[in-house]
Amino acid sequence: MRRRPTTGFTLFELLIVISIILALGAIVSVSFMTVGDQADVDIQRAQFDQIDSAMKRFRMDMKRYPSDDEGIAVLWNKELLEDDEDATAWKGPYMEDAVSTDRWNNELVYRFPSELVEETKYDLVSIGPDGEEGTDDDVTNHDRRKNADGEFETDDSFPSGASDSATG
């Protein structure tokens, strides 16, 4: 009697296939998690772009950036102006929606003058997913001006010095 050739996979072959599938799944899931994290950072930068645009319009009307005490909330709330005389120059709201938290529901940090770049600029800082300021996951409105080493580059398109003298 002849033996029929067996068809199918051995247990060893099945284990190899399963381990290959699991390894590929791990690689793909890590890639997607990285993409998701980068998407959150990109969304935060887009939010900073909106705030920067509103800050430019505020500065055109008010001839200054908001003070630390006023914060970015003065972009949508006229009542926060420190000087009542400024109320006539305020042509806001400069933003449709109030924005006080970042992508990770942490309070945005606003500083004027800047501690990160030029003294006459302002800082917007998202403390990132870890919730601590000064760590590598922080996102700032100045991040696009960093070089490959993470240092801020000077750029002639960002006015400094004499042209910002009216900012206080």
Protein structure class:
mainly alpha
- For the record, the count of structural domains works out to 1
Query: Helical element count?
Result: 1
Oligomer: single chain
Topology:
Blueprint: H1 11-62, E1 109-111, E2 123-126, E3 139-140
Write up what this structure looks like.
- By secondary structure, the chain is mainly α.
- The protein has a single domain, classed as 2-Layer Sandwich (Glycoprotein, Type 4 Pilin), CATH 3.30.700.
- The chain contains one helix and three strands, in the order αβββ.
- The chain has a three-stranded antiparallel sheet, covered by helices on one side.
- The radius of gyration is 26 Å and the shape is rod-shaped.
- Mean pLDDT is 82; it is low at 156-168.
Outline:
The protein is mainly alpha-helical. It has one helix and three strands.
Which features characterize this protein?
168 residues; Glycoprotein, Type 4 Pilin; 1 helix; 3 strands; 31% helix; disordered C terminus
